[in-house]
Amino acid sequence: MLFNSYEFIFAFLPITFFLYFYLNHNRLTEASKAFLVFSSLFFYSWWNIAYLPIILSSMLFNYIIGTALNKDNEERLHRFSKKTLLTFGIVSNLALLGYFKYMDFFIENINLLSAAYIPLLHLALPLAISFFTFQQIAYLVDSYRQETAEYDFLNYSLFVTFFPQLIAGPIVHHSEMMPQFAKTKNKVKNYRNIAMGVFIFSLGLFKKVVIADTFAVWATQGFDVATTLNLFEAWATSLSYTFQLYFDFSGYTDMAIGIALLFNIKLPINFNSPYKATSIQDFWRRWHITLSRFLRDYIYIPLGGYRKGEFRTYTNLMATFILGGIWHGAGWTFMFWGFLHGIALVINRAWSKLGFKLWIWLAWLITFNFVNIAWVFFRAKEWEDAVKVLSSMLSLDDIILPGFMSSKFYFLFQYGFQFGGFVDNIKGGKDTFAYLFIAFVLVLLFKNSTFHMNKIKFNYLTILFVSLCLSISILSLNQVSEFVYFNF
């Protein structure tokens, strides 16, 4: 079930909301939690009920391991050390993730290197497996550090399955979620939270179905359909995906935060205007913040962080971001995308150590263009697709200008310029570059939506704005599309 679907907006969400608070109003606290867990599992199973046993088994396994880690050795661990139990838990989680997400990729490379023919398994990737696996690994490590105290399977199930953040994050900690569910005041409808939730949900829905899905058409044509691209088509393709991903993920994040607020739960901020970043380090402080936090706390710091010398620091950065690339998908393009970001972070750190500084506008320009070019590998299904887009972006051999410019710039014919449909191969037109310009304005000049949420004043103007966003978005739901991060 998608956030941007009629069944979610007009059936699942209102029914879940009213029944949850009805049960709490009648002081049926345990029943309300059980109902929210049931609703979340129903939401998850809507995609494919075959995924349900996988998440249930994963939850039960990690609950048992986590509870054992949080108890005294003599009471629960018997002859196993906590470190052994933690290692077993992490390896088991990674094995589950590796089997479903990476097994076919592994087999493909074995076949390529050995000239063998091992049949592919063609496994369907269970929805959200990367997110609920990382979230539960974090829970195990926190339990090992004695930072959790959860011995109730119902509460643990609610922590893992809470549907606003189940499918694509944010990746949350037990300690930042469960105290909120335990608060008595959060079991009563809060009309300010409801108003803020509807406001931020409306913004997110508009970002997704009106803005992101518009850019998706040109990005898909450029990457997956067109066999050749001219200079403008290539740049329009890469920028269209850059903005599609931005508004798609930003929209999902806003919708998740808004839905959670309806239930008086505040999810951590996961997106903070990342295209305003003036360094790659700044970018990762703003993009998918909870994933960056996980990579820092559970990979980079355990590897030694910056505490073991500069060379080791650079090695740790590279390893962390290559693993981050692999987490996003089973493919060499994802690994190379992670490698590029690792290299960029190493250069950024070395540059800072030398004390060099750039003008702010130049630092932004370099950062944005690096991110834009790196997204090409992130989006491309095959190396050839990435090469097609990048080679055309960097080539001046095939420049086609809009046909209406031919009368004024006819002298350019002698320099090899052509006039005509300058973005025909991606099914674009003049509006393509108008949308790109508007997107630049939105991401650079406007504040992050969560800032507006915290400052919002509820008046007739706000109601009109929300109504317009919702109306336009709902009328645009004729072709429902998944969020990009659902694929990870």
TrEMBL record:
GO terms for cellular component: plasma membrane. Keywords: Acyltransferase, Cell membrane, Membrane, Transferase, Transmembrane, Transmembrane helix. InterPro entries: Ac/AlaTfrase_AlgI/DltB, AlgI, MB_O-acyltransferase, MBOAT_fam. It holds the Pfam family MBOAT. The keyword GTP-binding does not apply. It is found in: Cell membrane. GO terms for molecular function: acyltransferase activity. It comes from the Bacteria. GO terms for biological process: alginic acid biosynthetic process. PANTHER family: ACYLTRANSFERASE, TEICHOIC ACID D-ALANYLTRANSFERASE. Belongs to the membrane-bound acyltransferase family. This is MBOAT family protein.
